[in-house]
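Most newcomers find our protein records easier to grasp once they have seen one. Sequence and backbone structure share a record, each on its own labelled line. Nothing more is needed to start thinking about how sequence determines fold. As an example, a complete record with its sequence and its structure tokens follows.
=====
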Amino acid sequence: MKEDLPGYHYTLERLNKLTYELTVNEGDIKKRLVEALTYYWISADDLPEKIREFADKIDTAVSCIPKDEYDNTYKNSLANKHLKTCSKIASQIVDLEQMLTEYIDDMISNN
């Protein structure tokens, strides 16, 4: 299990960058979410099994596209979402970052 930690550290680094961009970029939360996801979103496969389901739910929320759209981009997927929904998604991303941090800390302390 310890051999998996370097990969998880890389994933955590990407999540750190994503949450940083969500926090400091200009614009409303929807714009910041689109920008951050475009450059820093990770695959649930890059996460420990324990937290993949949580990441999958976020991925589903940011990847669904309106019926009249064909281009599967975060911008199109989030276009019809309310700012409150985008804020909730951003909060879930921060929660995911915390979950991965705790997982890595637990793995290190148990080895």
Remarks:
- Residues 35 and 63 are 14 Å apart (CA to CA).
- Helices lie at 5-24, 29-40, 49-63, 74-78, 83-110.
- The chain has a mean pLDDT of 87.
